[in-house]
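Quick one: C-alpha cells for this chain, please?
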Amino acid sequence: MNTPVNYKLAKLLEKKGFDEHCKLCVEEGDEMPLPFNCGDTIHRNSLHPYYSAPTIAEVVMWIYDKYGIWIYAERYSTLFRCYAEEIGDERFGKWEGHKYESPTEAYLAAIEYTLNKLI
C-alpha cells in the first residue's frame, strides 16, 4: 500500500526506532504527509520537528524485518479485518482486529496496535 502514515503513527514509529529513508515527512498539524523538500536529501527522523512518513507497505516490512511480526488484512464480506502474527512463535498466536471499511483503515489499525501492544 502506497498510502503514507499519519502524524500520530509517524511519531509513534520514531519512538519505536524507525529511522529509515522516506520520501515524505509530516509535522504536527499536517493533514497529509508532504514531500520532504530539501534538495536531494531523503528524509530521516533525525531532522526534527519533522517525522518520517513511510508508506503502509514500508512500515509492514520494517516491522516484519525488525520484529518478525507480519501484519495483513483480509476481506470479510464487505468489510476488512486486520491481523498481526509473530512468525515462528506459537506462544504469540494471532491478534485479530475489528472490521474496517477499507484495507487502509485495517492496516493502520493493525500497525497502531502492533506498535503500542506488541513491540
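The radius of gyration is 15 Å.
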